UniProtKB/TrEMBL annotation, chain A:
InterPro entries: ABC_transp_permease (IPR001851), ABC_UrtB_bac (IPR017779), ARM-type_fold (IPR016024), BCAA_transport_permease (IPR052157). This is High-affinity branched-chain amino acid transport system permease protein LivH. The keyword Lipid metabolism does not apply. It comes from the Bacteria. The gene is livH_2. One of its GO terms (molecular function) is transmembrane transporter activity. It comes from Marinomonas spartinae.
UniProtKB/TrEMBL annotation, chain B:
PANTHER family: ALIPHATIC AMIDASE EXPRESSION-REGULATING PROTEIN, PTHR47628. Keywords: Signal. The keyword tRNA-binding does not apply. This is Aliphatic amidase expression-regulating protein. Transmembrane segments: none annotated. Gene3D superfamilies: 3.40.50.2300. InterPro entries: ABC_urea-bd_UrtA, Peripla_BP_I. It comes from Marinomonas spartinae. The gene is amiC_1. NCBIfam families: urea_ABC_UrtA. Pfam families: Peripla_BP_5 (PF13433).
Amino acid sequence: MRHLLAFCCCLLGLLLPLAHCAETKQAPLAQGAESNTTANQPPANIAPLVLDLTQAKLNKLLPILKQLEAVSDESMVPLFHAMMHGDLYFIKANRQLVVATEESGQRLYKGLYSHVLMPSISEDDLKKIRVNNRLRGYLRNAIARVHLTAASPDVREAAVRELLAHLDKDTIATLERLYPNEPNKKVKETMGLALAMNTASQTNLPDSTRIAAIDRLSTSLENDVRNKLTTLTYQDNPAIKSAAQTALKHIAQRVERFNFLNQLFFGLSLGSVLLLASIGLAITFGVMGVINMAHGEMIMLGAYTTYVVQLMMPNYIDYSIWVAIPAAFLVSGSVGVLIERLVIRHLHGRPLETLLATFGISLILQQLVRTIFSPLNRQVSSPSWMSGSWEINPVFSLTLNRLYILAFSLLVFLVLVMVLKKTSLGLNVRAVSQNRNMAKAMGVRTAWVDAMTFGLGSGIAGIAGVALSQLTNVGPNLGQDYIINSFMVVVFGGVGNLLGTLVAAFSLGIATKFLEPVTGAVLSAILVLVFIILFIQKRPKGLFPQKGRAAE
Amino acid sequence: MKMKTLVSAIALTGATLIPLPSLAADTIKVGVLHSLSGTMAISESTLKDTVLMLIKEQNAKGGLLGKKLVPVVVDPASNWPLFAEKARELISKDHVSVIFGCWTSVSRKSVLPVLEELNGLMFYPVQFEGEESSKNIFYTGAAPNQQAIPAVNYLINDLGVKRFVLAGTDYVYPRTTNKILEAYLKSKGIPAKDIMVNYTPFGQSDWQSIVSQIKKFGSQGVKTAVISTINGDANVPFYKELANQGISSEDIPVVAFSVGEQELSGIDTKPLVGHLAAWNYFESVDTPENEKFIKEWKAYKHDPNAVTNDPMEATYIGFNMWVDAVKKAGTTNVDAVEKAMIGQKFPNLTGGMAVMGKNHYLSKPVLIGEIQDDGQFETVWQTDKTVPGDAWSNYLPSSKNIIADWTSPINCGHYNTVTKQCSGGN
């Protein structure tokens, strides 16, 4: 009898492979879920709400979240946090909540309440708890409300600032309760600001109290404070109205100053990009006199090198840049040496042919990249330490990636100047560029120096590519976007003068950024170009022309 | 000796010539006019593959009218005048029955006179600015009223947006769309001071001061949104800069009309999460038709990570409608197919029926989605019914009274309903 049963089972298994399959697939999941069932449960008082969360439609989620916030306290933060970032999932089989985390490039799921990794769970077993902008906004505030009592003063301060725009009765009551006992000075100040915002808009308070509050507000640069003051200027009470107007005027003056600084930074940042892109050209074109139309492609090769380096070390994106910089220098540099040896050397003294030949090389390199990497742009990730911004005050913040690139461009410039001034290679380069025949007569291997100079210029273009990969798209056309600007900078600065390139890059960057808000991006680019054409008419040798015999 | 060579030469030419007519007789040629090199290759090469896949499937089903479909692929290389040359070549040299092609409006405008002169037939699969209707073109992408206007309604009604930034790349599609949007916003009572318009060149990479302007414009205490017609890869540094300057999608959402799954597949989507896009199709929409289409596409590309997008769906609908129209007409003759096309119905991949209107525009559903961290869209809003495409916008004074109707008695792509005149042209 038992044999027969076993046989029947076997037959069934053979006949219904699909059902069998489903069964075996279900088994480990059920097991995995079972082992975590005890630990991964929400507290009993919110369990029904959590269940609702997994069943409701997107537009019905907000009331559920509000109830959740009302019935519970700090324990809600992990749920809210995961949901806000779109990392909250539930297991289809038993509706338990899990959080997705990324560990060494792998996607893993943890029980929301058990904090235990669930290796048996795969994406197919899960469904995401959806979230949209309205919910995200709500969650952000809800978290801030809980964080008002957090241990870290920075978190508390961020929470108060977050809530400035959403001061409801409950929040004000909480703040009034917390304010007197707040130990941290900075947090207390921000809390005071929030309370002053509330006081200023209370129509039942005496004018003098409200005006004092407005005076307190006039010292702040917070955007929400400005909005509050603006609404106060629409009020009927003339005393309040004029006080608010004075406060606004006071703030506007300070904001204006910071705006100017902001624009200056934008200009410097654009200048640093121009400097990086053109500094290699300043050597190949400026010092050697070779019109290298493939310079942009050297930048592109550097950017693609960054991409390949990141591909090879996917778990160490934060450090990949440090590998990419020398790698890009070597790749672009050796391609540069190759181009010089194979093509440019044979066209020495024929600028027009050099121009055409290097233009052809640029097209070949572009198509080569298209064939190898596809015509689609490649994704280069930014290291985490380069993302975000350094907030100095609410109206003035510097984006970190631009700040690093600004510093980096100056460093590259300095190193290059040192190489040219202090090393024997630099001495040879300067000798050859000043008087080729005389240098040759003195025993300088001009052919070797030419190749090395071209390699140096190209290698630096490659380094520029690493920096640009952090700012713009890495694609086959990357170089084309920068070649015109690079020539513009070198010609404007004065051919053969590195300092000129520096000054030209930053002045063009700053000029463009100050023009842009007034004229728009399209017109500002045109105006800068027109200015350079006129300038070159007046001073054909650029800002810093070479003097003496070297000018010949 | 001489005679012999002559004979063999004749025999040779004969041998090569004779099979040709018979080959032509049992095949139908389909032209594919998408850039495979240059800047537009990023977007257009996908559509070429889509058409090839659809042709392969149709042939597997037994072809069309008992004949095999043969693709003729040419590369206009993102070069607008070359589009016209290649179209001429396809029609007069290769004798194709239909062309699937173009992406940018400027390439379509370049092909249009050739199509009208040689009486060719083309399907255009990309969302565009409208303001055109040709007897020889069927527009299967979205017109402004099927993408831009519903998106603005969503912003005003659902998100309570009262200030708008219209940011676009400086060329015909963004300029025309923004003109329509500005007129529409004003008709909705949004004052001019609450609308900021900004244009940037193709491939803009330095967004610092523009984003800082947007931030300033958007932090006046009134809910602000950006409507972006920024094209192509300039979007990546734009979103990056938004994130770097601390503007999140909750503060100032960006609604894009040119950012789809394909564009998102090559970039880090973390800074984009929560920003919006308006399309007629999202890969994430859960229907059996869509699932099948995605599966076929991944199999065809041999790439489990291949994504689908809106212009692909438009190509899919256009191709299938053409197949049905040819079946109905019983011939590939352009005039007969053009007549049979009007009123053709075909199921959308997102549900519902697409219907070809008298103005050569499709009726389609409109979807608004939020970008997710996996590069897909989560639908947050959609129209209850399909929206018929409007060839001439009702919000522009110059085209308010114009309609397109390719059925008798009007038979015109630019018909003034007030003066009752067809001004020819398109």
